[in-house]
Amino acid sequence: xxxxxxxxxxxxxxxxxxxxxxxxxxxxxxxxxxxxxxxxxxxxxxxxxxxxxxxxxxxxxxxxxxxxxxxxxxxxxxxxxxxxxxxxxxxxxxxxxxxxxxxxxxxxxxxxxxxxxxxxxxxxxxxxxxxxxxxxxxxxxxxxxxxxxxxxxxxxxxxxxxxxxxxxxxxxxxxxxxxxxxxxxxxxxxxxxxxxxxxxxxxxxxxxxxxxxxxxxxxxxxxxxxxxxxxxxxxxxxxxxxxxxxxxxxxxxxxxxxxxxxxxxxxxxxxxxxxxxxxxxxxxxxxxxxxxxxxxxxxxxxxxxxxxxxxxxxxxxxxxxxxxxxxxxxxxxxxxxxxxxxxxxxxxxxxxxxxxxxxxxxxxxxxxxxxxxxxxxxxxxxxxxxxxxxxxxxxxxxxxxxxxxxxxxxxxxxxxxxxxxxxxxxxxxxxxxxxxxxxxxxxxxxxxxxxxxxxxxxxxxxxxxxxxxxxxxxxxxxxxxxxxxxxxxxxxxxxxxxxxxxxxxxxxxxxxxxxxxxxxxxxxxxxxxxxxxxxxx
Length: 537
Fold this sequence. Notes:
The chain is an alpha/beta fold and 537 residues long. The protein folds into 2 domains: 37-260, Rossmann fold, CATH 3.40.50; 300-514, no CATH class. Helix content is 45%, strand content 16%. It has 22 helices and 19 strands. It has a 7-stranded mixed β-sheet with strand order 9-16-15-10-13-11-12, with helices on both faces. The protein has a 6-stranded parallel β-sheet with strand order 1-8-7-2-3-4, sandwiched between helices. The longest helix is centred in the N-terminal third of the chain and has 28 residues, at 2-29. InterPro entries: HAD_RAM2/GPAT1-8, Plipid/glycerol_acylTrfase. This is Glycerol-3-phosphate acyltransferase 1. It is found in: Membrane. Residues 333-436 form the Phospholipid/glycerol acyltransferase domain.
């Protein structure tokens, strides 16, 4: 038996050796043979020294400082898939740590995208939520060397799905081409399986992607490598020199300052206000039950007590506020403020110590109207009807709070002010508002507006600054005079807050974040007549 076993083992060994030799011969006969020798460097080229060349940059660990793609997938899971999917991804995190970067990205993509509807999830998370998180993680050093002018062309490579990185790279950084896998779909739903690297390279004309319109543009190509080994063949075949950053080098990188963004980040959507790292996401799940109870307590305090008692009690419950008073302005009957959240009129009324103020809105949810401790009424965007309604409210109530922007803006920018309030013929008290949240945003362009009060009040310590500015005198002078007053108010509020004025409108915001103009059609009665009403702000 022993001789027979030894003979069989010897034959098996010889067969394996023959197969290995054949494999070596085939490999030698058909080498990958990079187009040119590639030099791997540990130093980034100077920005001024590479003008006119081409840069191939890996997104994860190259352009981005973070050594993990987990927060980006978690954001998509939370915004597009809900709490259950996000919890599953969080529970799988210890197992993901045992995998290599490329395998972990595929696993996270499977959990995050499987079953999501393409036209809703990818549009919202990729275009509306992720750019803010990704921009905050861009390395200023790599941006200067690979993306910023005077470099002629930049090609970014990523192992993450194209739906996640394309809007950020093309629209906000202005890169020329993106090489990234697509997530397979069927019937308009994602299957959670990404293309292989070889499929991506076969689908693209890589030489044309690298060179652009000029043929032979690869002679001046340098690369910035990153995490994982995906698309290494692209770097080896096309890059003359490749910078491979180490983990210690990434720790020394600095975030790209906001003022240097190629395109300013003015609009973004989604409920999550923090970077969803594993630790921060776990803290959020632990906080949610307590946050719901805290939100209910805050609402009850708002509704049951007068401002003189509710304001100090709400401060004890974590709602911080700072008032910069102006007694002359606080006694006026018409207040115009920038729009940060649905609580803006409440903070103005509380800071002025007046419950006789009413809030004019371009539509809020029925739940928000029911929970408001001050009267609210909706504007219809019919100028004559809205002007008459505001006049009636000014006569019946003690005063009126309006938000001329017509919709909220989370970033330090002011949208164009509608001049309708200036046509009422009353002197206007400008109010500059600044708000900050740490966990959840209380506004949304494409989500369910009824949850806005809940998410806003669930924050551990939401903060507001209310600054009453000097009154602006209004004289009846027609539309041009009203427009001048609106522009003056926008300028004063921006100056007080350190914000930037823009000419953007509600329509611009909704076209970008929700794919519509902020207007919906509501059918009434059996005749099918439709009434145009505004979407929730």
